[in-house]
Request: fold
Amino acid sequence: MARKTKSAKSTKSTKNGKSTKSTKSTKSGKSTKSTKSGKTERKRVKFELETSAGSEVYVAGTFNGWDASKHRLKMKDGVFSKTLLVPKGRHEYKFVVDNVWCVDPRCPEWVPNDKGSLNSVIRVN
Reply:
């Protein structure tokens, strides 16, 4: 399951000491907040999955261009996990376990995708 953790600060102070944020649209038409420097605000999200030891587990989603080989999870204490800095907003994702795409069984929200299966959904605030 993906869990939100404390975020890294990404606002930028102006000369008068006040922080500023701007909003820009993404390809999907949804807006994301960005700092004055143009960087999108991100939060740490921990993705976790319990599966067989010896498995090769990755996470892929809208936050990484659905790259199934970019973010490999590591096993510790019987659970595969990886913490990523994910842009604020709504994201769809799946785990890839030994080259098989899987929804997050502990995620409470799933949506249909254009492949005829489901994607897990996380909202990063």
Remarks:
- The domain at 2-7+42-124 is CATH 2.60.40.10 (Immunoglobulin-like).
- Residues 45 and 84 are 5 Å apart (CA to CA).
